[in-house]
């Protein structure tokens, strides 16, 4: 069933807003996935703060042409049945969500993406992004590194104090 021109304009407006706020957009081929599998993917994406869109590539091109950053972006890779994963909060999340889903569902194939600067991301770039820790994991690692010397010092002092106290108690008896 064909969609009306008004509906297309609404879709383009929504896509334009979504892409203009996106930190990263990743696209993948989804031919062969069932509706239930797509719903499973959407649920996993929602939990990670990622939006999944299945729209015509032509509408994505129109939306990208309305955004200054994406005007000169090469869109020749946007062919076939594609789904788009977009995040406005985390640069790694769209790649991570799709890569994790692709591990258990062979029908999903990562193809590429776009950065918030309008750069094309190759399939290898997307897989590298997916392998990186998320923003929250990186923050946790930095905090752990910063707290490590203090924790080590406290552990050493508490261990040393208990042995001194037990040594004094043994001497007193």
């Amino acid at each position: 069933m064909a969609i009306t021109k008004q509906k297309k304009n609404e879709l383009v407006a929504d896509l334009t807003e979504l892409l203009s706020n996106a930190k990263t957009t990743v696209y993948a081929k989804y031919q062969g996935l069932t509706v239930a599998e797509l719903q499973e993917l959407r649920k996993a994406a929602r939990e990670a703060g990622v939006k999944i869109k299945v729209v015509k590539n032509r509408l994505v091109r129109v939306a990208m042409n309305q955004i200054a950053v994406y005007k000169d972006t090469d869109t020749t890779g946007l062919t076939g049945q594609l789904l788009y994963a977009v995040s406005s909060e985390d640069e790694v999340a769209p790649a991570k969500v799709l890569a994790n889903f692709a591990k258990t569902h062979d029908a999903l194939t990562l193809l590429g993406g776009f950065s918030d600067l309008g750069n094309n991301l190759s399939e290898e770039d997307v897989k590298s992004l997916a392998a990186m820790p998320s923003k929250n994991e990186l923050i946790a690692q930095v905090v752990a590194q910063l707290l490590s010397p203090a924790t080590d010092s406290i552990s050493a002092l508490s261990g040393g104090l208990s042995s001194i106290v037990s040594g004094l108690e043994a001497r007193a008896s």
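The chain has two domains: 5-132, 133-173. The radius of gyration is 24 Å.
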